[in-house]
Design goal:
By secondary structure, the chain is α/β, with parallel strands linked by helices. The chain folds into three domains: about 260 residues, Rossmann fold, CATH 3.40.50.300; about 80 residues, no CATH class; about 60 residues. It is built from 17 helices and 15 strands. The strands form three sheets. It has an eight-stranded mixed beta sheet, with helices on both faces. The chain has a four-stranded antiparallel beta sheet with strand order 2-1-4-5, with helices on both faces. Helix 5 crosses helix 6, helix 15 packs parallel to helix 17 and helix 16 packs antiparallel against helix 17. The chain is globular, with a radius of gyration of 29 Å. About 5% of the residues have low confidence.
């Protein structure tokens, strides 16, 4: 009973081995953000950056926090590592309050167990220090090595794990590319063997080809070391495939929290809908005719009925007043996935404005983002269809039936060219035959 009272009062000097268990699903709650407000400035100039934010992160999962620039994502992440103070509410780690004033011994344990990977790999590294010192700094501060040989071994092993070489340890950050710098930042965090890593848009400053490598590294560490991630991002197309659960934040308010597939199948809050509709489609024609859904906060009437974050079932939390929550529940209980992307049919007759509004083809995001693996439209399809036009037409219709649109187009063009050539040869032969007979 004494330990429980200590936890509630925040006078715990050490972290427990395990966090509390969620009674609903039996998972261990590693981090819990409860009704957190974060304010910058004082008096009339005060800005409330985060408002009554609440969510839990379970051990071993990737929880992504997404939203547009300025929505408060990074502010929450910096509050978790105790950089931004909470104006109200509390942040619990393994059931122990780590926000506000805490004992020095507990503060050191929090630093040891929660690490951060920053957005800008250039600004987050000390340009005057070698890579060896940068990666070793946490080991020095917490003396996490037996002797110098043990420290060198740990640093070299971590450098190898992130895809760099031991000879890189004597170099300085300015000698590396952006992707390599981010690997150094990741090595600095992971060498501490943390339980929770706050990844603040770790791939947004990197080239597209490098992003997948860094994401694979993060996933590798999660599998091997059972690391938990608070992944902060604005790109939903990436977040979907790396997250277990996703929280959506808008102007400091958490507006929706759900599992990744659940959120994309049922984006109930209009702001979530707008974020998903903005995901680029990897097809220029479809992207050109896509209709963006724009979120307008004035659509909500919170003058009398105040909104709150409510669980509508299926562990799906949505922010709204009573009327909106009932509407969200009704939509979710139907169990029919929502269609988030609208594509205007360019071939539809456009007689008047009303007709234009009705001639809209709606398709789910998966239909366009998940193209068949071998739908390449290879030139060989054109060549073979040109040589065997009848078989080419048959293949084209088969490809179209199974949504291999690039292959369909290649076969169709090759077959038509082949048929035109055969027709030209036949006409030329008939003309020659007529000339011979005459």
């Amino acid at each position: 009973m004494a330990n429980l009272n200590q936890k509630k009062s925040g006078h715990v000097s050490h972290l427990p081995e395990h966090g509390p268990i969620d009674e609903k699903n039996g998972k261990e709650i590693l981090l819990s953000v409860k009704n957190v407000d974060i304010t910058f400035g004082k008096g009339e100039s005060a800005v409330r950056a985060v408002k009554n934010a609440s969510f839990d992160i379970y051990k071993g999962e990737t929880f992504s926090l997404v939203g547009e620039s300025g929505s408060g994502k990074t502010t929450v992440g910096r509050a978790v590592i105790r950089v931004n103070p909470c104006a109200s509410g509390e942040i619990l780690y393994k059931g122990v309050r780590i926000s506000g004033k805490i004992p020095h011994s507990l503060d050191r344990e929090v630093i040891r167990n929660i690490q951060m990977v920053f957005q800008d790999p250039a600004a987050s590294l000390n340009e005057r220090a070698t890579v060896d010192y940068i990666v070793s700094e946490g080991l020095y501060n917490f003396h996490l090595y037996k002797n110098e040989a043990d420290r060198v071994r740990k640093v070299e092993e971590m450098i190898n794990e992130v895809g760099l070489l031991p000879e890189h340890l004597t170099r300085y950050p300015h000698e590396f590319s952006g992707g390599q710098r981010q690997r150094i930042g990741l090595a600095r965090a992971m060498v501490m063997e943390p339980e929770l890593v706050v990844a603040d848009e770790p791939i947004s400053a990197l080239d597209v080809s490098i992003r997948a490598q860094v994401l694979n590294l993060l996933k590798k560490f999660q599998i091997e070391k059972n690391v938990t991630y608070l992944f902060i991002a604005h790109d939903l197309s990436i977040v979907r495939f790396i997250s277990d659960r996703i929280g959506v934040i808008y102007k400091g308010n958490i507006v929706e929290v759900a599992e990744a597939d659940e959120l994309f199948d049922f984006p109930l809050h209009p702001y979530t809908h707008s974020l998903i509709s903005a995901i680029p489609i990897p097809d220029p024609k479809l992207e050109k005719n896509k209709v963006l859904y724009t979120y307008d906060p004035s659509m909500h009437d919170y003058s009398t009925d105040q909104p709150e974050l409510v669980n509508i079932g299926h562990e799906h939390y949505v922010y709204g007043n009573r009327k909106e929550i009932e509407e969200y529940k009704a939509v979710r209980e139907k169990g029919i996935p929502l269609k988030s992307i609208n594509i205007v049919d360019p071939n539809a007759p456009q007689k008047n404005e009303l007709k234009n509004k009705t001639d809209v083809h709606t398709a789910s995001e998966d239909e366009f983002l998940q193209t068949p693996l071998h739908d390449t439209g290879s030139v060989w399809y054109k060549v073979l269809s040109f040589l065997l036009p009848v078989l080419g037409l048959i293949a084209a219709f088969a490809f179209k039936h199974f949504h291999y649109y690039h292959n369909y187009t290649a076969c169709k063009k090759g077959a038509i060219a082949g048929l035109l050539l055969i027709a030209a040869v036949i006409v030329l032969f008939l003309l020659l035959l007529i000339l011979v007979v005459v």
